[in-house]
Write a structure and sequence with these properties.
With 316 residues, the protein is α/β, with parallel strands linked by helices. The protein contains 10 helices and 9 strands. The structure holds guanosine-5'-diphosphate (GDP) and magnesium ion.
Length: 316
């Protein structure tokens, strides 16, 4: 080989090496289903990861009824989270529907994030779930939540039990409400995602309409401000949503299952429905960034939780 050709070849090779080093890693994107027993903190985690409220949260189980999309777009990676209703022994049509939604999300997802409540430890229900989730292999990642409420020495036995149940699966101890260990958690999730261009526009954070988010915020206040069976007997529809010059006018109906639940929701001289409306309005104003006029109606929809047609009507 001529000397000049050799020199040229060296230059080309070194240039290629330099390129290989500076080339950014391929973009990753995919679906992450967040699953687990009711009340372990799945919806809290989603909201805190996004810094946006897309899923309602309460101390009562079965708050989340459908699959909720929350998109987190970061440099080089997009995580499309699917928040799900709690996996539980569901009696009745509504409960069975909720558990079905969770299982569908699991099948749809590239990665499944199983969440446990560290305060409860690994319960009998968790053990049954672990046996089912084992089949996911490397698609599975585990988050042990609420470590803010845990004493340090209580963590090790839980980690040991999980390693017995699912040997070698990564467990990240986190606190969803205190945002502890989010960087580690995201790292574990991201490396399991396939190479893919983004699935959603960078500014899209959910697929729920404003109307649907508003209905959920009213339902959240009903759950927080009522007791016994009432939180589970309620569905909310938005019947009017109208942007006026300096206020958005919203009419929403709270559907209850039985006549006896109506006075509970309305309260003495309308005090309960007023309190629910005021709290919901504040949340909705924060969501929309506008002044809101909210009017609430209560309607009896006899036995709707057992009625296929009504469930469809309420999007369940
Ligand atoms: P989900 O049913 O799994 O979606 O659970 P939620 O997100 O609705 O949360 C259930 C309850 O647990 C709520 O009262 C939350 O405020 C609470 N919670 C969620 N995450 C944490 C956490 O990291 N620490 C503590 N102390 N409480 C939490
Ligand atoms: Mg939830």
């Amino acid at each position: 080989m001529q000397l000049w050709a050799l020199l040229l070849a060296i230059v080309v090779v070194t240039e290629q090496d330099a390129k290989a080093e500076t080339l950014p890693a391929a973009h990753r994107a995919g679906f992450v289903a967040i699953v687990g027993r009711p009340n372990v903190g799945k919806s809290t985690l989603l909201n805190q990861l996004l810094g946006q409220k897309v899923a309602i949260v309460s101390p009562k189980p079965q708050t989340t009824r459908g699959r909720i999309l929350g998109v987190l777009t970061r440099p080089g990676v997009q995580l499309a989270f699917l928040d799900t209703p709690g996996l539980h022994e569901g009696r009745g049509l509504l409960n069975q529907r909720m558990v079905r939604r969770a299982r569908e999300a699991m099948e749809e997802a590239d990665v499944v994030l199983w969440m446990l409540d560290a305060v409860d430890g690994v319960t009998a229900e968790d053990e049954a779930l672990a046996r089912e989730l084992a089949a996911l292999g490397p698609r599975l990642c585990i988050a042990l939540n609420k470590i803010d409420k845990l004493k340090k020495n209580d963590l090790l036995p839980i980690l040991a039990r999980l390693d017995q149940l699912l040997p070698g699966i990564d467990v990240v101890p986190i606190s969803a409400s205190e945002r502890l260990n989010f960087a580690e958690l995201l790292c574990e999730l991201e490396r399991r995602l396939p190479e893919s261009p983004p699935l959603y526009e960078a500014d899209q954070f959910t697929d729920q309409t404003e109307r649907a988010l508003v209905a959920e915020m009213v339902r959240e206040q009903v759950i927080l401000q009522t007791h016994h069976e009432v939180p589970y007997a309620v569905a909310v529809t938005v019947d009017r949503f109208e942007d006026k010059e300096n206020v958005t006018v919203i009419h929403a109906t709270i559907h209850v299952e039985r006549e006896s639940q109506k006075p509970i929701l309305i309260g003495h001289k309308g005090s309960k429905i007023k309190a629910i409306g005021q709290a919901a309005r504040r949340e909705i104003e924060a969501l929309l960034g506008r002044r809101v006029y909210l009017e609430l109606f209560v309607r009896v929809q006899e036995g709707w939780t057992k009625d296929e047609r009504r469930l469809r009507e309420f999007g369940l």
